[in-house]
Amino acid sequence: MSHTTPSRSLPKEIRNAQGERIDFTVHPGAAANDTLVVIGHGVTGNKERPHLVALAEGLAKAGVTVLRLSFSGNGASEGAFTASTITKEVADLGAVLDALPGWRIGYAGHSMGGAVGVLRASRDARITFLVSLAGMAHTAEFAKREFGTVQPGAGCMWDNPDCPLSAEFMADMARIGDVLAAAKGVTVPWLLVHGTADDVVPVQDSEAVMKVAGKNARLVTVPGGDHGFSEGNTAPMVQAVTAWVTGLGR
After folding, report:
1. Rounded to an integer, what distance in angstroms lies between the CA atom of residue 3 and that of residue 228?
2. Structural domain tally of the chain?
3. Cα angle: 116, vertex 87, 12; to 5 degrees
4. Is residue 6 a part of any domain in this protein?
5. Backbone phi, then psi, for 193, in 5-degree steps?
6. Burial class (CB in 10 A: 0-12, 13-18, 19+), 151
7. Residue 166: pLDDT band by 50, 70, 90 thresholds?
8. Does 9 reside within a domain?
9. What is the pTM of this model?
10. Structural domain range at position 202
11. For burial by CB atoms within 10 Å, which of 83, 124, 154, 194 has the most?
12. How far is CA 190 from CA 105, 106, 154, 206, 248, in A?
């Protein structure tokens, strides 16, 4: 019996379940390498965050194809920002995976995008490895801590007029509560990277995940690293992720 390798290609367009176009950028890797990493951003972010661009460039230089996306309602993607909940972004990620047949897919998510990755990877076998960058674990606590004094429908996230706070977002964060139960269901290789000086999502979130995660999970801390892996914190993060991803399967 002959066996054929599934054809792999890159999409020209991706739309989510609502028909909204998801903006993305592809960084081609080595032609013979069938590994592709999807990179997702955090709350109020988009695919153009400097540390995510740097990670994509580092992985591509190492031969790994990368697809950076802006979730619906963020960046140049279609949709309303006020509808940008974790639950909707988990579904958006599913639409992206649908558009990538034939690839060995990994997902790297930053902050809230890290929570998205845990929830998707815990139930979607198409994600063969997972990377959490300053990943959010306690969603309800985060929303209360950062936006608890802001009135949904009237105020904005971190006083950013482009990021109005919605009741839908707050309700979704509270309903999820945390991703620790889902973390127990992640059985694929999993790298967590977190800065020790993160004042948005504390490193304790990743430490809490490690207490329930399986033996395939590994935590790397960046001493003095902030939430956005800015300035001198970018290179250590990129190096840690690139070395880990390229070392898988060896």
Report:
1. 44
2. 1
3. 70
4. no
5. -125, 130
6. exposed
7. very high
8. no
9. 0.96
10. 24-138+178-247
11. 194
12. 13, 10, 39, 12, 10
Domain assignment of residue 73, yes or no: yes
In sequence order, the 6+-apart residues with CB closer than 8 A to the CB of 180 are 137, 208, 209, 212
Residue appearing with tokens 């198409």: 126
**Taking all residues of the chain, what is their mean pLDDT, rounded to a whole number?**
96
Structural domain includes residue 217: yes
Helix/strand/coil for 67: strand
| Structural element, H or E, at residue 119 | helix 112-121
Q: Are 198 and 226 in contact (CB under 8 A)?
A: yes
Pairing relation of β-strands 35-40 and 65-69? parallel
β-bridge pairing 65-69 and 24-27: antiparallel
Give dist(CA 106, CA 190) in Å, integer.
Answer: 10
